[in-house]
Specification:
- The complex is a heterodimer of chains A (about 425) and B (about 400).
- Chain A is of the alpha/beta class.
- Chain A has a single domain, classed as Peroxisomal Thiolase, Chain A, domain 1 (3-Layer(aba) Sandwich), CATH 3.40.47.
- Helix content of chain A is about 35%, strand content about 15%.
- In chain A, the strands form three sheets. In chain A, strands 1, 2, 5, 6, 7, 8, 9, 10, 11, 14 and 15 form an eleven-stranded mixed β-sheet that branches.
- Chain A is globular.
- The N and C termini of chain A lie close together (about 10 Å).
- The longest helix of chain B has 17 residues.
- In chain B, strands 1, 2, 5, 6, 7, 9, 10, 11, 12, 13 and 14 form an eleven-stranded mixed β-sheet that branches.
- Chain B is α/β, with parallel strands linked by helices.
- Classes of the chains: A alpha/beta (about 425), B alpha/beta (about 400).
- At the A-B interface, α3, α4, α6, β6 and α7 of A face α5, α6, α7, α8 and β6 of B.
- β6 of chain A pairs antiparallel with β6 of chain B.
Chain lengths: ~425, ~400
């Protein structure tokens, strides 16, 4: 009989359902097959023209019905798809989930396609005045809802019958991890015995790409798209913008066991720490990331020597990978050279608001399958970053515990610790 | 309803329960800044709102007051990295931290958690207008977008627009770095932010939390966010309760922000801080409004909040949106013990900041042992005496509902 309470007397939180969508495909099976064979989902952009753009590649999800319909519809569809997979796997009623919903999703804005069509449906006035006048004559709520920050979660709450006011959150590129953390905390506080945590991001619009590009954050290695994302390599030159979603059904271990659910993994700990150094850059000594990792370990009740594998944030930007290496080598000391640390982003790119959830899903699968997905495109190691990145080929290994890192603009640092088995 | 239980269930006591108290309030609205200025204004019988009916005609707004950003955002470089929305939020957050005696205290700031309710920041209206104008004569609009956006967007503007960068700026400017979370979703985000912050303190996860939001309405996109569903009131200004049947959708917006410092009672006492009030139950919900569930949902929330017997001063964040405000009023009419004050009559609707603002006004009334005079004599009734508890409500103009009970410390 497993313990039902953790080292701090809180209910242990189990994962009983996992769902995922990335540029590699829909669902765990396709994604895992591609991920473990070192396949990249990065491809030339076809959704919009790339004239004038320095970056012409991405990991967009181009194969869903909503892929060409704008950020809100695509984010919703990916969230729904991943959640459906997770809830089905958990064996729960997918129309009556009856636990809270935590959604990490991108900030919304009126899509340009809608802006253009509203504007050009009239001739009177110019600029904002015209848009406002056309807007108040609209008879449908479709466009309005794409501009409301709570609407995607509201629809998901209807679809899955989640309980109460759904929380939509953004901690930038750490959002997916924060959604999971909020679910874990709600269960630990005894507010619920299950929660649905989703990270979804379908916001790879031209404007989003240009914004990141203007901040020099994106790779411009356009010629061979699948080689562009190369975390921890010497010639890494930015991240690859991508889309995807990850969903987890979280349950108190007690409730999950009581209903005979299959335990897919345990959420052992969560840690966070904000950085006050700069809007996009991390404190040079990496102290906030270090503090976040240590907070996650402490929350999990695990020592530095008890983490088997690190699912890195590993964005492939010069800055992140250097800072992440510094933080990990500070926390784990000499052991860092022999710990496997790989970046899923080498294959799927950076799925932004979804990344923490997608990578938590892959971390759990890594433990269940005893296979570590590789860091691909590791042809030119950065000599300043000495890590075992599981280069280029998957590795069979028993993995009992994983640390998954997520760091974001605005000083966001969130780390999750997961385990294969209850204590 | 996510949180019905407020006291620990004796069967399941995983975490100890702590009282949540309010020790800092930071407010900005068209009426001024800070709790004192707001109290003075809001307790003047017959106070007239500050309005600007010309700038965004046919819409009326409640504009920002004069704000000297330097008082809370010392570095000009930091101010330049933000647009008005982030400055406003960072400023209001600074007021709350000052008020709680936390600002400048490294130990307290680095261990302080933060939950910010945020929408998005301001787009570059001139760039957008130029693109829209050019779109009238071009069919290759996607190429037009690339041309204009790659050459005309200011690179750092993106950061001024990102929802979580209000929290990011608060970390940078005020050094609040325990944790940083941003909730999105209009009024509901403000409700969830306060609810989550309180739950963290009750369970012992946090000792002190900065929570709040800001809204800057003086930008066409911020009006568009309402008007795509026809929510804005047009024509002459009226109090919130009197907009049914008037031209437009009933919402008059205002620029403003509200931040609170919530604190574990023992933590506040141990550092000898003034306590405005205790924050009691905070409950939230999501009525399926198209199915007509809103009235029943508000009534359910009132029951869950464990209201005291007798007259209860109620600070309502009613927006004026026709359907939501009518539902709220119907529930209040059915609960005659509630003496309602809809503050948006005087401040305008401040979206994500609505609920934190309501809680702040409730805490001030409890602290000063006095109610507010009616903000609209035709609908609101007088409240006499010293309120021991005050209810704060936020019924979203489009979706999501919540309320909280504030009690004497």
């Amino acid at each position: 009989m497993a313990n039902l309470r953790d080292h701090m007397g809180r209910p242990i939180v189990a994962v009983t359902g996992i769902g995922v969508v990335t540029s590699l495909g829909v669902g765990k099976a396709d994604n895992w097959a591609a991920l473990t064979s070192g396949k990249s989902g990065i491809h030339p952009i076809s959704r919009f023209p790339v004239d004038q753009l320095n970056t012409r590649i991405s990991g967009m999800v181009d194969f869903l019905p909503s892929s060409s319909k704008g950020a809100s519809p695509l984010t919703y569809e990916m969230a729904e798809t991943a959640a459906q997979e997770a809830v089905s796997e958990a064996g729960l009623d997918s129309g009556d989930f009856s636990g809270p919903l935590f959604l990490a999703s991108p900030p919304v804005e009126l899509d340009w396609a809608d802006r253009f069509s509203l504007y050009n449906s009239d001739k009177q006035d110019i600029g904002a005045e015209r848009l406002l006048r056309v807007a108040r004559g609209l008879k449908e709520l479709d466009i309005f809802e794409t501009t409301q920050f709570g609407s995607i979660a509201d629809r998901l709450a209807d679809r899955f019958g989640t309980r109460g006011l759904p929380i939509t959150l953004s901690t930038a590129c750490a959002s997916g991890a924060t959604a999971i953390q909020l679910g874990v905390e709600a269960i630990r506080r005894g507010e619920c015995d299950k929660a649905l945590s989703i990270g979804a991001d379908g916001s790879a619009t031209a404007e989003a790409l240009i914004r990141f590009s203007l901040l020099s954050a994106l790779s411009t290695h356009n010629d061979i798209p699948e080689k562009a994302s190369k975390p921890f390599s010497k010639d890494r030159d930015g991240f690859v913008l991508a889309e995807g979603s990850g969903a987890l059904v979280l349950e108190s271990l007690e409730a999950a066991l009581a209903r005979g659910a299959t335990i897919l993994g345990i959420m052992r700990g969560c840690g966070e720490k904000a950085d006050d150094f700069h809007r996009t850059r991390s404190k040079p000594d990496a102290s906030p990331a270090i503090a976040a990792v240590r907070a996650a370990l402490a929350d999990a009740g695990l020592g530095e020597d008890e983490i088997d594998y690190v699912n890195a944030h590993g964005t492939s930007t010069p800055e992140n990978d250097k800072m992440e290496h510094l933080s990990l080598s500070t926390v784990f000391g000499e052991r860092i050279g022999s710990m496997p640390i790989s970046s899923n982003k080498s294959m799927i790119g950076h799925t932004l608001s979804a990344a923490g959830a997608v990578e938590a899903a892959f971390s759990l699968m890594t433990m269940r399958e005893s296979v570590i997905p590789p860091t691909i495109n590791y042809d030119n190691p950065d000599p300043a970053i000495v890590l075992d990145v599981v280069p280029n080929k998957k590795r069979n290994a028993e993995v009992g515990t994983v640390l998954s890192n997520s760091f974001g603009f605005g000083g966001q640092n969130t780390c999750l610790v997961m385990a294969r088995e209850p204590v | 309803m996510r949180k019905i239980k407020k006291s620990p269930d004796p069967q399941q006591p995983p975490m100890s329960s702590h009282d949540v108290v309010i020790t800092g309030i930071g407010l900005v609205s068209s009426l001024g800044e800070g709790p004192d200025a707001h109290w003075q204004k809001l307790t003047q019988p017959g106070l007239q709102p500050v309005l600007d009916a010309a700038r965004f005609a046919p819409y009326t707004i409640h504009p920002l007051p004069e704000v000297d950003w330097n008082l809370q955002i010392a570095k000009r470089g930091d101010q330049r990295q933000m647009e008005t929305w982030q400055r406003l939020g960072t400023y209001a957050a600074g007021l709350a931290l000052d008020d709680a005696g936390i600002k400048g205290n490294d130990e307290l700031c680095t261990t302080m958690d933060m939950v910010v309710a945020a929408g998005g920041g301001e787009r570059d209206e001139a760039v957008d207008a130029a693109i829209l104008a050019a779109s009238e004569s071009r069919n290759d609009r996607d190429v037009l977008l690339n041309e204009k956006l790659t050459t005309e967007l200011r690179p750092t503007l993106f950061l001024a627009q990102l929802s979580n960068l209000l929290a990011g700026n608060i970390s940078i400017v005020h050094k609040v770095t325990g944790s940083s979370r941003t909730f999105m979703g209009e009024e509901g985000a403000g409700v969830s932010a306060v609810e989550t912050a309180a739950a963290r303190i009750r369970s012992g996860q946090s000792t002190h939390v900065l929570v709040g939001g800001a809204f800057q309405t003086e930008h066409s996109d911020m009006l568009l966010g309402y008007e795509l569903a026809g929510y804005l009131h047009r024509g002459p200004w009226k109090p919130v309760w009197q907009r049914q049947g008037a031209e437009g959708g009933g919402v008059v917006t205002g620029s403003g922000g509200a931040f609170l410092v919530l604190e574990q009672r023992e933590h506040a006492k141990s550092r000898g801080r003034k306590i405005y009030a205790e924050l009691g139950p905070v409950v939230s919900g999501r009525a399926r409004r198209r199915r007509g569930e809103l009235n029943a949902e508000i009534a359910t929330l009132l029951k869950q909040a464990a209201l005291p017997d007798g007259d209860l001063l109620t600070i309502s964040a009613a927006s004026g949106a026709h359907a939501a405000t009518a539902a709220e009023k119907a529930v209040f009419d059915a609960n005659p013990a509630l003496a309602v004050r809809a503050f948006s009559t005087l401040t305008g609707h401040m979206k994500e900041a609505q609920f934190p603002f309501a809680v702040a006004l409730a805490a001030m009334a409890v602290d000063r042992k006095a109610g507010y005079p009616v903000f609209d004599a035709t609908v609101e009734r007088p409240f006499e005496g010293a309120p021991n508890s005050v209810l704060a409500t936020a019924i979203g103009y489009h979706q999501f509902e919540g309320l909280g009970l504030v009690k004497a410390a």
